[in-house]
Amino acid sequence: MPTPGPSAADKGQPQNAQFGVPLPPGLYTFTDGLRVKFSATHECEYDSMDPCSPFDVVAWFKGRESKVNIFPDKPARLLWHSVQVTDHSLVVRK
Fold this sequence. Notes:
mainly beta
């Protein structure tokens, strides 16, 4: 069975990134092989009663793919890594 990987739309040239450094939306690769696509999905209406997740993070690592909709300043775990959005930037940690 083939291992999952980035779709054709996500196969652009990634930029090299370092753990712990804030990143703007884009496609990144890290030294341990993690590949991450970070994007803003839409603007939220903050007066709404429904929570809104304005950012998407898709990651590929060791043949696995995972996606999370992420809220600012609320860390999430994704393929053995921690991701957090602060000031519209993504921070990835091991």
